[in-house]
Amino acid sequence: MAVPTVEAWTLSRRGLLAAAATTLLAACGREEERTGPSGSDARELVVGASLELSGVGKALGAQQERALRITTDILNEGGVPVGNLRRNIRLVVRDNASDPRLAAQHTTELATRDNVHALIGGCLAETSLAIAPVAQQQHLPFISFAAADNITLPLSQRTFIFKLTPDARDVARALAQLIRTQRHERVGLLVASGPHGDSGVRAVTAALKGVNSDLVRSVRLPRAEDADLGPAAERIAAKNPDAVVVWATAPFSGAAARALRKADYTGPILFDPGAVAEETLSEKNTPAVEGAYAVHPISLGGSSLTNTTTAGLARRDFVYRYVHEHGSFSGFAPYASDAVQLVVNAARLAKSVDRGRLRAYLGNQITEGIAGAYSFAPIRHGGMDADSLGIFTVSSGAWSRVS
């Protein structure tokens, strides 16, 4: 059965973003307040990264570090043009160990001691939400990889904060369309604890109402990585749902699928993008996730050889380099690549690495990245365009695009 494509954004929405961007860009042509370090090497663009290289988020953080170094090496081959200089990108990477307090501490150190011009990272909602207020206080542009909707809100208090991942409502609408197409009337929701899960509950509840499907039960997953997910899965299975949405990040996504199968649930499992990591398709998870679906940016499918656009060629080159260096490609990886490119674009347009000017030009980019398309504007600091999303299924232990 054919699965419908995700609804594209309306022209009026894009028009509103473009108009707001034009207004602020005109102001950026005038002298602006200068923020950030003045003692950095004039030949460098210094980018800090706070990543979950250990702890519960390591399945996501490791991919970002790989992508970060691949893209930085590519850009440094010719240098980054900033005004009348060509700068090299210098990375300052910190392992936040999936600990929000450590992530906040690193942000202060990166801003004041390492004098970074911009900060990227925070794969988990908890670490990004800890970073955001500190980055805002330091007037340090921060680009988050996490999936909670409130990372950039309220916008008046998050003027230096941006987010790359899709909005929960766009992911939920795509899942709901798949559920409607497959005629599932009773749906269970197994959802992460914390801000990422909060966004999922709100979005899935609203989206299911729009397709006349019933949310028969919503159950939170425990926070600890080594926790027993069996009781949560059994509560869902007891309601005999036609389909189950698992809204979590790896490694919880694969563990939740295993727990559901152990609880004798045999129906379809539908994931949000947080599931798409190498760990989810590991040998221990493969039997449970085979046939499962996920909504994810189209980068998960790699890049077609017939796509000769600038973005398509960049995506193909990135995937080739990633596979060559690491053996396999994961769709979550390109966020770090896109974040660095967005910072570079901002520096090039601003002709400066001043934090205030970088923030202004970050907030006015409408561009196609490797993971998908972004439309930033003064009224919107994230996430990815809805028409960059696709539906994938696990077939023979690998992700295959359905629509």
Features:
403 residues, alpha/beta, Rossmann fold, 2 domains, 7-stranded mixed beta sheet, 6-stranded mixed beta sheet, 15 strands, disordered N terminus
How are the strands of the largest sheet arranged?
A: 8-7-9-10-11-14-15
For the largest beta-sheet, the strand count, sense and barrel status come to: 7 strands, mixed
- What is the CATH class of the largest domain? Alpha Beta
Distance between the termini: 11 Å
Q: Note the total helix count.
A: 12
Query: Can you tell me the CATH superfamily of the largest domain?
Result: Response regulator
Determine the fraction of residues in helical runs and give it as a percent range.
25-40%
Describe the oligomeric state of these chains in a short phrase.
single chain
**Average residue-wise pLDDT:** 89
Strand percentage, roughly? 15-25%
User: Based on helices, strands and strand pairing, what is the structural class?
Assistant: alpha/beta
Order of helices and strands: HEHEEHEHEEHEHEHEHEHEHHHEEEE
Low-confidence runs of at least 5 consecutive residues: 1-36
Counted beta strands: 15
Give the overall form.
globular
Q: What is the fold named in CATH at topology level of the largest domain?
A: Rossmann fold
Task: Give the number of domains.
Answer: 2
Assign the CATH architecture of the largest domain.
Answer: 3-Layer(aba) Sandwich
Taking Cα atoms only, what radius of gyration do you get, to the nearest Å?
21 Å
Domain Leucine-binding protein: 46-378
Pfam family, one: Peripla_BP_6
InterPro entries: BCAA_transport, Leu-bd, Peripla_BP_I
Protein name: ABC transporter substrate-binding protein
